[in-house]
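Could you join me in thinking about how sequence relates to backbone shape in a protein? To get us started, please write out a protein record for me. Would you write everything just below, so we can both look at the same thing?
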Amino acid sequence: MSDRGFSAEVVRFDIFQVDLRAGELRKEGRPIKLQDQPFRVLSLLLNRPGEVVTRDELRQNLWPADTFVDFDHGLNSAVARLREALRDSADKPRFIETVAKRGYRFIGVVDDTALAVSSVADESHSLMKGEVPPLAGQHELPNSRQDAGVTKYAPARTWIAGVPLVVLLGAIGLWPFYRKTAETPLASIEVVPLVGLHGFQVTPAFSPDGNQVAFRNSDGAHHTGIYTALVGGEKSLRLTSDSGDCCPTWSPDGRQVAFTRYADKTISIIVIPALGGTEHRVYKGPAAMGGGLAWSPNGEFLAFPEASGVDSPRSWISLLSLFDYSTRRLTSPPGGSLDQSPKFSPDGSQIAFVRSTIAGVSNDVYVIGAGGGEAKRLTFD
């Protein structure tokens, strides 16, 4: 069983397909963005399904011996990203199980049906090409039944040879039903009618496909938090319930929502699945006076206003890497000013932001390259 994962180029489990040669993870045939290290973790676990792969084994496979890095943090980050891609939970895992103080184990069911269908498909393809090998106990008819060098076989042989094709067609017909039954229901989440949503709804953000809107609802009581709603729908989905949550932004693939959480003069940036689930904090630091959060089109960075200290009124635009969670400062506002409300250009090469005076006298729009450089002022109050 442990060799089965790498004996086929494509491994299937639940509604996912893993192309080991191409290094791709797909969900129902659609590619899912997954970085190299999380994919390698998945490959190693699939190579030994049901067995514990130790943290040390994963470390040796993910990083060369002469690499200087925080292995524990890096591995935890890779596993967290893998779980996000699979919509899995560390608390109630369906695929990736944590074995305390040892490592991880793949507990999903690898789909043998997919391998069987693949085998039948290969055989049926050979049939259509006329490459049918002789079956045991069968013989060619006399030469008088042969035409133009093409060997004719007895009718019984033709019927038997057609069986794999019938099996293939049956498997293809049943696959959609198998796939549906393989899906595991999502964890229970709260659905609230829009007509019954009390309070103020602010900071709306469209999903990439334009079908949903994420927003903050605030009523000072029980319904404060981040919500999503279908455009034209009558209900909303509550993702969080913290009074300090604000400013949602969608991942480019529409599968996750990032938002800020203010508490005790600090700000945290948190990522959560768009259908609800486990929160992942990716940043924590002093709260800035300015607000706003933007996800880069390539999915690798979050732009946000960062401050140097709790009591500092100034803020600048920084980029947070979702790979190693490091931050890089982009802008340098002059004294008495703060930068806020960043937005990426469609190609991700530029960031627009608002530069305001701390006294609130003026607000102007600037643009800066995502790689840094001099900010260009576009408006003049």
About this structure: Helices lie at 4-7, 36-47, 55-62, 71-86, 112-128, 155-161, 163-182. Residues 4-106 form a domain with the Arc Repressor Mutant, subunit A fold (CATH 1.10.10.10). DSSP finds seven helices and 24 strands in the chain.
